[in-house]
Design goal:
The complex is a heterodimer of chains A (162) and B (391). With 162 residues, chain A is α+β, with helices and mostly antiparallel strands. Chain A folds into two domains: 3-42, Orthogonal Bundle (Arc Repressor Mutant, subunit A), CATH 1.10.10; 62-140, Alpha-Beta Plaits. Chain A has helices at 3-13, 19-26, 30-42, 80-87, 113-124; strands spanning 63-71, 92-97, 104-110, 130-137, 143-144, 147-148. In chain A, the strands form two sheets. Chain A has a four-stranded antiparallel sheet with strand order 2-3-1-4. Chain A has a two-stranded antiparallel ribbon with strand order 5-6. In chain A, strand 2 (92-97) and strand 3 form a beta hairpin. The longest helix of chain A has 13 residues, at 30-42. Chain B is of the alpha/beta class and 391 residues long. In chain B, the strands form three sheets. Chain B has a seven-stranded mixed sheet with strand order 2-8-7-6-5-3-4, sandwiched between helices. In chain B, strands 9-12-11 form a three-stranded antiparallel sheet. In chain B, helix 8 (181-193) links the parallel strand 5 and strand 6. In chain B, helix 4 (68-82) runs parallel beside helix 10 (269-281) and helix 11 (283-306) packs parallel to helix 13. Chain B contains 13 helices and twelve strands. The chains are: A alpha+beta (162), B alpha/beta (391).
Chain lengths: 162, 391
Amino acid sequence: MEFREELLRIMEKNSRMNTKELAVLLGVSEEAAINELKALEDEGTICGYHTMVNWDNVSTEKVTALIEVKVTPQRGQGFDNIAERIYNYPEVESVYLMAGGYDLMVILEGKTLKEVSGFVTEKLSALETVTGTATHFILKKYKDHGTILGKKKEDTREIVTP
Amino acid sequence: MRDPLAKKVVEIKPSGIRKFFDIVSEMKDAISLGVGEPDFDTPWHIRDEGIYALEKGKTFYTSNAGLKELREEIAAYLKRTQGIMYDPVGEILVTVGGSEGIDIALRAMCDPGDEVLIPQPSYVSYEPCAVLTGAKPVIINLKPENEFRLTAQEIEEAVTEKTKILVLPFPNNPTGAIMEKSDLEAIREVIIKHDLYVISDEIYGELTYKGKHVSIAALPGMQERTILINGFSKAYAMTGWRLGYACGPKNILAQMTKIHQFAIMCAPTTSQYAAIEAVKNGDPDIARMRESYNMRRRFLLNAFREMNIECFEPFGAFYVFPCIKEFGMTSDEFATRFLQEEKVAAVPGTAFGDSGEGYLRISYAYSLERLEEAMKRFAHFVEKLRAAKNA
């Protein structure tokens, strides 16, 4: 399966590519592309297909917060149990276990500052094992998932060159 | 007043690309497939080193041959990619792009009357550069049935006792043809038999899609009769930095360095610092860009196959070279009509030599979206032409 990683790199950048196009780009049969894609989905390597949205261009208010969370790990559970209790909240976008000054990084999307602070004070801090939080708000996204937002690149090359 | 111009310069015919460029630049909304340079930006870590060099005030001349550290890195690179050992002192010269290397290699080696074998279709500068030295260019017309590779027999047929140099332009612009190791081995004997020197233009050497590129200098007995030309433009997307290099035997390099010293002084300093970073840490960038090019190459080949357009599979550079002979037009006519009727610019094969007649050079140094749109228009054009023929 040498084309597996190549396939993943394509799909990671453009998940709208259909299997016929994919097969052409990879130089394999369409059947091979379909099978590989299905295998990757089945084993959970491809976990979903999303659209990158630059919400700044939409009038809907949206606040993204990065919350550092310090917790006391539980005997026999480590951090997994507390992480699960946090990531089950639908408003939580991502949860990472961190090395360094704090334990969990929680990324939260809310409609307003109030909604985010409500989550932190009423839900997150209220968890027994949480010993402290620090909330940071994102002011502007310049680049997300490897894509530079808001700028379309122009081709400034000469039109014809040898 | 007397004529200020040198006859041999005036007699050089202007590049066919230039002519086509003038037509294209009048069409405001045309999309182009005519570019011979990467669409990628120079990788940021390389640009960053250039900026850093400027910030630190590294703005002076370097030694004529180029920064020693850069020459050492180039030597290390050629050792790890080709297994060829060059002495950074005396066997490597940093030039202003590969083009300067070609020019001064010819100038250092050609006396008036010497014959230079130039396979075509190929890059536009070999013939005029040879003419400027007073040498006689002898064109070898590469054949589609050989996938535009050079054969021993073709060299044999073109050699006279005056033949001194063979220009070896592979991976090839405009055809995308490569010379695999077995192809090189096949021409090696003829080269040695006739005591020829080789100027091997390997500027697209990092961009091959069927095994790794092999330099002719890596073959036994060839390093001492080869000037290897390469550079940073295509491999690292650094065209505007104007930086290349030439490697070869000390006696030839010494004379090339002399010309370089008087004509150029040294290659641009900022670019040299950036190039150190490129050649040291740029291998993953090359791999990433090559993967993209390869996908686009497959896309174009598939598109031509679906249109029933004859197109051999090119394994190098970033060009495909489809055949348009079935339409009964010259390359020039086809390219001009394609531009006027579909607003797509593709360079006529004849811009790279008479043997490019009947072909177009399509560059895939463009995004897939662009190529998709261009192929839609190509299909539309071809349909129209075929319908007119059958009517």
